[in-house]
Amino acid sequence: MNMKLILISTGVVLAGLAQATTLSFHGVADDFFEAYISTSDTVQGTQFAAQAGTWQGGGAGGSVTLTPFVTNYLHIQARDVFGAPSMFIGQASLDNTDFYFGNLTQNLLTNTSDWNLSLTGFGSNYGTPADLGQNGTGAWGTQSQVDINAHRLWSTPNGGGGEQYFSVAIYTDVVPEPFTMVGLAGVAALALRRRKK
After folding, report:
1. How far is CA 84 from CA 33, 62, 67, 139, in A?
2. CB atoms within 10 A of CB 140
3. SS3 194
4. What residue segments make up the domains of the chain, in order of their start?
5. What distance in Å separates the CA atoms of residue 66 and residue 186, rounded to the nearest whole number?
6. What is the percent of the chain where pLDDT is above 70?
7. Cα separation, 72 vs 61, whole angstroms
8. Which are the contacts of 11, defined by CB distance < 8 A and separation ≥ 6?
9. Which residues are registered as beta bridge partners of 82?
10. 77: β partners
């Protein structure tokens, strides 16, 4: 069997074994936010959604593929630019059971139990965000693209300007199957062997 055929066969097998998980998120902030995905809680990560206009525009959403076999982190950087009141609200979902949130499900709303908040950056000085009330309360009315049971979060009940860093871990118990590891080792060995010739 030639090298090209081996590599193609191994690639087909590995592609069949790997099931990608997609994270979807929609949120609203008063005034702006960006959503990122990362494999480290201390690294901002790759942006996949951003709210370009103020909360009256309905917020923003997006989807991103998670990195398999490791914990991923959903990072939200929210900003109040125009002064109080201030808030962030949203919902996230996963499209299969290979990953799960801290509530052990594939769906997560903003709440004070599962979300960490920092005023200094991702991965540091985390505390519990303040609960400003359920969707439909406060000065913002109801955000129609966010579940009614989601809660508005901020650092203080009275809002206030500045950056807010929200973080949620997305866990997995899935590990590469032994056959996948053997396949990867085989591809590496063949590549080395070919390089030596």
Report:
1. 16, 27, 37, 10
2. 18
3. helix
4. 20-175
5. 25
6. 80
7. 18
8. none
9. none
10. 34, 165
Q: Looking at 8-161, which runs of residues are DSSP E strands? A: 22-30, 32-38, 46-51, 60-65, 72-80, 87-94, 99-100, 107-109, 116-118, 130-134, 151-154
Interatomic CA distance for residues 90 and 167, integer angstroms = 12
- pLDDT tens digits, 79-122: 999 988 999 999 999 999 999 999 999 999 999 999 999 999 99
Answer for the pair 145, 58: CB distance below 8 angstroms, yes or no: yes
Residues 18, 23, 28: CA angle, nearest 5 degrees: 170
Encode pLDDT of 144-153 as tens digits. 999 999 999 9
Under a CB-based contact definition with an 8 Å cutoff, are residues 115 and 129 in contact? yes
Please give the Cα distance from 101 to 164 (Å, whole number). 21
Q: What is the pTM of this model?
A: 0.82
Q: What is the pLDDT of residues 159-194, one digit of tens each?
A: 777 899 999 999 999 987 664 455 555 555 555 565
